[in-house]
Queue: 4 jobs
Job 1
Amino acid sequence: MYERIYPYKNFRYQLEMEGINVGGFSEVTGFDAAYDVIEYREGNMPATPMKMPGLIKYGNVTLKKGVTNSTELFQWLKSGLEGAPTRKTVTLTLLDEAGAPAAAWRIIEAWPAKYNAPDFNASGSEVAVESLELAHEGMDRVQWN
């Protein structure tokens, strides 16, 4: 008999830095990796160039959350502005319907590259959202069974 397997939903997750849960975020984007493609052709080769893998590039990860009294993210950025940035391992864990870990993405040697304070509008009614963009040097995916 065919067993139907549903994909996980994207709204239940937790974020950890160096193994410490750092709270909820409304949005986490930018987990990607890609090779530069090098095309090469010599005069006696077929008309189609060969393609070789070049450097691997990782996209910056952006964390967004509503502003609270916590200044932890801003302090991480500020420590880098006053000296060398502190690099950390950051793990985003996707949770299943029961709240158990289903899959995780780990970003390696992450450091704050950009901080955005919220926009303010006296006639608005939205949540004030701050964001932190993380540069990093690699990513890994973990899956639980």
Job 2
Amino acid sequence: MSDVFREAERVFDIEVKWLETTLPLNRESFPEAVELLHGSKGKIIVCGMGKSGLVARKIAATMTSTGTPSYFLHPADGIHGDAGILARGDTALVLSKSGDTAEIAALLPVLRSLDIPVVAMVTNENSLLGRFADVVLKLPVMKEACPYNLAPTASTTAMMTLGDALAMAMLNLSGFTPEDFAEVHPGGSLGRKLLMKVSDVMVTRNLPLLSPDTLLPRAIEVMTEHRGLCMAVSGTGQLEGIFVYGDLGRLMKDRANIAELSLGDVMIKNPATARGDGLLALAVQTMEERGITSLVVINENSLPQGIVYLHDALALGF
């Protein structure tokens, strides 16, 4: 093994141990921090200097994109006029390993003057920031991955992970949905994936609808004409089952004579389906998880409205 790879192993080992140590330290304080941040009547202000500031900027971006309006405030800029962004009703999330960073210390009186509660990520609870904060998310007292214990490495990994955990906990509490995510990510490939509905790509004309009494040779003929799928519907049009090429292969393996079977004898009852107003990305996920290449699209009355094919979605970049 090369010395370079051993160094990678050393760094990973240290950073994993930081994460494993950080979560138990915050078993009680993490729910308190989520409650305070989620209950904010205004926006979340996220602050940090240096490497902690870079992590803070990312946390603010993650929160904003997942339903919690947040804003990164650079402490140095904050004490030179940018604190004007602050307002009563806001809540602050402040990151500082030592808790005694000068620029953050200068910003704390401004937060207090506006009655802005503070959640702190800090190693030393007895630091200025630790004493000032309403809730402390504690970082362990451990060596950084930097061999000289100087460059912030494992500590910023722990901060980043705590920030992600806060954002995801608030996402769950707020009921933020993939559709909500799509509204704030309209551009590019991601926007297309999140905004496109099943109805945008489903095939709707000449659907392969058959009675369950249809003999299998006829069902196979129809299935072949419709990309390997046919549907069995009731007399009032509700979906009762489907039959696909994969089912035919398994059937022919087990039985010598299938000509006298009906569609109802061999169809898959209660198949996976999609709704036209559902996200195409979720339909693709369903097909990939189930190892299938198509989904019947039904309405609220179980009436077939179309078919969405995995190949069509993949052609669009999904």
Job 3
Amino acid sequence: MGKPMHVKEQDFETQVLKANTPVLVDFWAEWCAPCRMIAPIVEELAGEYDGKLKVVKLDVDDNQGIAYKYGIMSIPTLGIFKGGEMVERLVGYMPKQQLKRKIDAVLEAKAS
């Protein structure tokens, strides 16, 4: 069963931008209540999409350079990366089914 992996600025390029599969990045912080609310959903998604989607968490307080580079102004923000680019940005808490629809749309989209 897949589990979210914690990444830092040093391994972001390797783990996210150069990944062979699409990557869901959970931009979060310890003090963020909505981040804590969405965390169990992110955990479930990691298991459900194991092998099809890599799921990682990036603490924006500890990795401000990456947060700045991708314009993360509000958290939680979930970014879906494909081929080294953020192709979908989901800001704020949302129910699991809504997240799954967005993820499925990215996974089903043909690589251009």
Job 4
Amino acid sequence: MNDEKKKLNAKDLIVTGIFAVLLLSAAMFGGGPFATIPTLTFYFPIGAAVLAGPIFMLFIAKVPKYGALAIVGVVLCTLGTLTGMHWGMNFGFLICSIIASIVSGAGHFKKPVLNLIAYLVYCIGPMGTYFVFFFNRESWISFMLKKGTEQEYIDKMNDVASGGVMLIMVVGTLVVASVSGLLGLRLMKKQFVKAGIAA
């Protein structure tokens, strides 16, 4: 009986699909404005982490099962691939979603500290494309030019790319994700539970 409860059912899959769209929308609304500006695109992961914390925490509460976050990663990876996003971001989302599921699952999806760490891991996902840019720039540029990215956009990225920018991206994302994740946990405790949205 307990094994059955741990398995994803049809309802869980529907809820997971809905939250995958919500998490993607949060990333696009928060990070999209940065991505459109070549000199600010490296801060996309920071913006993407702003709004998703409460959504992520509610999702874990609604579907506290192994595999749910992995499915979110598969959905984000698939959509990213279909829309021409760099493979570094797509697989970053996939890999980090799987790791996040393992981290949160270690506490049976109920330990706030582990859920917060899981969210931090999840937010590292979008950085994948920028890590490729910094460490294998020619490959990144070749891939994006084939996908239709303009040379002018890439040239402006090159002008501002530096170790300092990468540091700001990583540290900034983790700081913002921590705040967003803590807000999500606070809302879970005070509002979502009272409203009966989460158990």
